[in-house]
Amino acid sequence: MSGPKGPSGTVRGVAMGCLALNASYEPLTMIPARRAIRLILDRKAEVLEVDAERAFRSPRVRLPFPTVIRLVSFVHVPRRFRRQVTNTFLFARDSYRCQYCGRRRRQLTGRQFLTRDHILPLSRGGENSWDNVVTSCSPCNNRKGDCLPREAGMKLLAQPREPNYVRLVWTVRSVTPTQAKYIRMFYGVKVLSTLRAGGGRVAP
User: Fold this and answer.
1) Other beta carbons less than 10 A from residue 61's beta carbon
2) Distances (CA, A) of 65 to 2, 109, 135, 176
3) Which residues fall within 8 angstroms of residue 83, CB to CB, at 6 or more apart?
4) Are 74 and 20 in contact (CB under 8 A)?
5) Residues 6+ apart with CB under 8 A from 170
6) pLDDT tens-digit profile of 32-56?
7) What tens-digit pLDDT sequence spans the chain (204 residues)?
8) What stretches of 1-147 adopt beta strand conformation (E)?
9) Domain chopping of the chain, boundaries
10) What are phi and psi of 151, to 5 degrees?
11) Is the C-alpha dihedral spanning 192, 170, 166, 41 positive or negative?
12) C-alpha dist (Å) from residue 73 to 44, 79, 91, 160
């Protein structure tokens, strides 16, 4: 099967991914369109949205380019995949905002940048866990050093907690307006607001 192809019949540039939803309509991940086609042909997923200008073609069949599919059977997201702390997800959890001074990434100047701060420093027995790490701008991180926040005369804006992994994924992804509709439908506008604030982006 060839494609995807546009109206002119020529292969277009890099194909955008397809948004895969759980049976519950929970956004799971972005997958290659070819993988989506296979799931559809195997009757493991149903098509919800397509790009009418693109299609996969074979000598016998023309299949519209899927942009959103829904799995027929519910897929459980293992808890173990929700525990890894990365700066990408940490910054997204905290809305790209320093949890000490409140400045957002776009408000930092010069050589200032966002960092990961351990509330209880690693040197004092702290762990690299979701409830012990926060986003901090580099000046605040340097000021705190190996102290506890109260020892440095600093206060946290909020108590850190482990985020919902799948929800968090969508703050660091680029999606189309059609795909964004399903993210908004399941999680509400807050995720899209965070996405636009500096994590992922909604393509025009």
Assistant:
1) 10
2) 12, 43, 39, 14
3) 130, 162
4) no
5) 27, 183, 187, 191, 195, 200
6) 999 999 999 999 999 999 998 888 8
7) 555 554 433 333 334 689 999 999 988 888 999 999 999 999 999 999 999 888 888 778 888 999 999 999 999 876 555 557 889 889 988 999 999 999 999 999 999 999 999 999 999 999 999 999 999 999 999 999 999 999 999 999 999 998 876 667 776 777 888 888 888 888 777 666 655 554 455 554
8) 2-5, 18-21, 27-31, 45-57, 62-71, 114-118, 133-137
9) 2-78+165-202, 85-144
10) -70, -25
11) positive
12) 7, 19, 32, 34
First to last CA, the chain: 29
- Evaluate if pTM is beyond 0.90: no
Model pLDDT for residues 154-175, shown as the tens digit of each residue: 999 999 998 876 667 776 777 8
Residue with tokens 């929700």: 82
DSSP state of 47: E
